[in-house]
Every structure is written in C-alpha cells, then in structure tokens.
Predict the 3D structure of the following.
Amino acid sequence: MSEAAAPLLKVEGLKVHFPIRKGVLQRQVGAVKAVDGVDFTLGRGETLSLVGESGCGKSTTGLALMGLVKATEGSVSFDGQTVGSFHGATLRNYRKRMQIVFQDPFSSLNPRQRVRDIIRAPLDIHNVGTMAERKERVSELMARVGLRPDQADNFAHQFSGGQRQRIGIARALALKPDIIVCDEPVSALDVSVQAQILNLLADLQRDLGVSYLFISHDLGVVEHISHQVAVMYLGKIVELAPKAAIFASPTHPYSELLMKSAPSLDPRNRHTFEARNDDIPSATNKPSGCPFHTRCPLATDECKRIEPALTARADGRLVACHHR
Amino acid sequence: MTAQIHNQDRAPVLAVEGLNVRIASENGPFAVVSDMSLSVAAGETVCIVGESGCGKSMTALALLRLLPEAASVAAGRIEIDGQDFLAMGQHQVEDYRGEKIAMIFQEPLTALNPVLTIGEQIAEGVRQHRKVGKKEAWARAVEVLKLVQMPDPTRRATQYPHELSGGMRQRAMIALALACEPRIIVADEPTTALDVTIQAQILGLIKDLQTRLGTAQVLITHDLGVVAEVADRVIVMYAGRKVEEASVYELFDNPIHPYTRGLMGAIPRGQSADRLTDIAGTVPPLWNLPKGCAFAPRCPGASARCREERPPFEEKSPGHFAACWEHDNV
C-alpha cells in the first residue's frame, strides 16, 4: 500500500442519483440514491474491492468511474488531475487508461464479431499502431490471457464462459490500462473456471502492475484477491480497511453480519443461522440516519437521527458507526 | 454400478436406483444422468453438488417427474415410501406431488404464478390434496406463511409475488412446498439467487423446519459452502454421473476423487499469497463425452487406463464411494 505516493485514483463524494418520475408531466417525485457519497483511493498495482449485496451501489460506482453512467456529484482525480476538467484528448487518454471487464461474458461480447475484432476494437477506436501492429498485439493478448491465437477467427459463441471472460480481459488489456474495473468478473462462472480467471487476474497484476477496482458480492473471492476492502451498504461505504484487518475483525455491524452470513466450508464448524426475517430497505426508500439502523443490533435513537460519518479508528481503518 | 449407502437405522423415504435420463436432440439422444442412485431417510439431508451441466438439476426434475418434454427416464427406479413412483399414472403422480414430495426452485419469481396472490397459490395446492373448504385452505396458507416466519403473514397472503422481496418470495415458495406436509423436499439451488445475508436466513429456516418436521431433503447446489452448512451426506456429480459419495465430514476430511479435490482447492479462502488450484480445461459436452473416465482430460493424475475404461463407482473405505482408478496415485 503506497502511503507516500499520490494515489492513482482518488474518488471524493461520488453520488449517482437516478430520478423517479411520475405522472403525465414526468415530474420528479424522488430519487434512487444508488451511490450516495463515496470516497476512496486506489494505488498503483493495488486491488480495492467494493463488496456488498444487491442494490448497495457497488456496480454503479464502477460504471460512474468509467463514465458509463453520469455522476450526480463528486470529484474523481486520476494521476493527480481532476477528471471533471478533462476534455478532448485528455478525456480520451483517461478512457484509455481505465478499462472494464463485465460480469456476464455472454452479453458483454458481440456474438456477430470475430474474437480478433472484439479484442482489436479498443486499438481501432484509439487509433493505436498500424494494422499489422494491431494484429500482432491481438495475438500477443490472446496468448497472454491463455487463449490460442489460432482461435482469433472464431466467434464469441464458440467459446465457453471462462474463455469468453478471457476474451473480455484481453479486450480490457489491449490499451495497457492502469486500472481495470472488474464488475463481478467471476460470478457467472463455475468454481473450477472461476479459479482459473482469478489466477489469471493475479498473474496480470504481478506482471503488468495494473490496479483493479474489484466489484463483488462474494466474500471468499474478495478475501482472496484484495489488498483493501470497502464494504458498501445502500450507496455508502460503511467500512474501509486492509483485507487482513477487515476479515479478522469486522468493525461495522454490517461488515460483521456479512462475514457471519458467509458459509463456513467446514462441516464441523457450522454457523447457527437465524431463520429470522429482516425487512430490508432499498435505495429508493432509504432509512433516516444510519442506513443500517433498521437491521442493526446496536441501533439507538442517535442512529435513527444522525448519519454517522466514515471516520478513522485507532488501527487506521475507516468505519461509519456511532457505536464502534 | 448401483452401489447404495443405506442408513442402517432408518428406512429410506426416497430411494433411487440406476436412474438414467436421456435428452432427445437433432443428433440423436444423449444421456444427461447415468446410473444415479441415492437414498434419503426422514430427517436426513443429502446434497448433490456439481457444476453446470453435471446433471444435478435434471436429477431433481426426474425425482418429481417434472422433466422437460425432450428429456425422459430411460432406465431406473424411483421409490417413494416403498412405492414405485415411475410406474404410477398421471393422477397418482399428481397426488404424490405436494403430499409426499415437493420441490423448491431456484428462482421464486419464475416459479410462482404472477397473477395469483401468495395465499391463493398455497390454498389452491391445499385444496388439491385435502377435502377442505376455501376458508380452511386459506387459513392453512396463513399458517404455513407463519411457519416460514413471513412477517405479517395475514397481509402477505393477499399480496402478489412481485410485491415481495427476493427473500420473502423464497419464503413463500418454501411455504408452498410445505403446505401439505410432504415427506420429501427437493430443493434446487434454493439460495443461489439470494444475497448472502438472506441466504443465511433461508438456510437457517430450512434447517429449522427440517428439525421440526423431520422431512427428508435432497438439496442441489453448486456451492460447497452451502453443502458444509446443511448436508448429512454428499453426492458429487460430474458429466452426468456420481463420482463420489460420503458423509459430509468424511468428504471434507478425505476427498478421494480428483474432481472433488479440485473443487475444494478452487474455492478461494483468503490466503492471497496462494494460487488457487484451478481445474484445467472445461466440462466436456454431454453429447460428446470422452471414452473412459469423463474427467480424465482435466485430471492431473489420469493414466492410460483412465482414458480407455470408465472406473466403477465403488466403496473405497467404509461408507465412502468413488469412481476413480488412480485415486491412490493422485
């Protein structure tokens, strides 16, 4: 973790609100606060995971950083420069240095394109190299992600899920990005194939020094791949800490609940899960104060009224809780 | 091979012997489930674990005689409470479904009827099996919703599936399955579509209900974590066949089959310095299985024999079965 060097990516107060419109005049009657004030930094060669359950805003955060959804508020700086001020060439350059791998390898690749065209597309768009160089780069990338270069003329549907995810990774690598946003890159894959892809991602980071913003709901995967972990709940980061610290002693009650809910993988050490049912709030209907107070065993009156800020604890981790 | 592991002290409620399921395709029929045998006693949970296309869901559907049109049972026996389920006529099968054996599907949103309220759907099932009036059936619906700890069951019974959250929908589906107190529950990936905190609640509920009602359970999953939490016995499937079967403790302590070992090594457990032991390659298509052991092309210990001859499913140590020629050398 590079404390001294300026972070590669710095996100401050990021908000993404989607308006809810109603009636013939389509008046805005509310907003889905998908991302509601998120701050974090990502260092070079580092993996930061955003972990949380459906609707916590982890994917929207990734999409907003890629410019694939429009941020409502907040500032993002990349390599010391504010992204909001980027235009023309600088914006194109930023897009080159930040790439994304999507969750579903079946819908994120064009079934009518040959693999070589899919992987070459970013090179074409950004006009990198001559045609011969691009062709060479495609072969190199295919070999790099474990595909046979002689499969370059095949169509995406001729590949299995794991191989398609390799194609998606090769496409993301084409422009030698500094950061790859990995949005649930292994959750559609079987466990044996998932391990292949996780190993590939680790190799690429070691060899190329690329940073990952890794978005996942799977705690096992997150614990395996991350350096830093940010736990998100209803559009906010509730805890951010180095991987070892957060898994050894989750501080926020929601982090704790998440860890306790993950199956044990040890039949002699089973969890006692409660059959109790929580009424779980959504981003359209966020509770007042601390968003977790409706499910929190520690909640007091203060939690219902005042939203806790994400502040540092003695060991350096950041937690948003009045009681921990 | 029709090797069976019987629970000594309890007679099985569900017994399957040599089940073969075939799918008709343009290029002729191919087997999706071969030589499947299993038995489940009251109060026992047997997990069938495997990856996409291993035949676990087809096995589940066959157990309820709910196979899709293109698929059919080519051979084998399914006994429920000692009765031959496959020999029964449509009428009797419908009597058995719900009353004796019921299913919990993965995706409650597609399994529940969107135009009927939760209460109507449960009451309909009750009236099909029991000679009760509408009022009584409705009361039973509310009662089972209470049993699955649905919050505010009287009101929820009047709501439609889309008005409920994912976790509540799964509770409604479990209620539907339990309404007529079946002896056997078959659950196909019951928590896969759910978030982890909701999964924990539903697993807690399933365990709790089993202790109270003593149902025999067959739980189909791809997740070894879920297996570790709920199983008594585990069957590992690969390419349509059983490759290993043992008690849950034995399976996690001493996995025999290289595929089972591969699966366990492939699960990330947090030591980021370690590489995951992936399993090279991918699952072969069921219509084009290799000769010999189906796992041989991906197996680190495969010998010439493995590529020629299919290994029998046999008892390797007391109560621990596997299909492997080379397990001593892997």
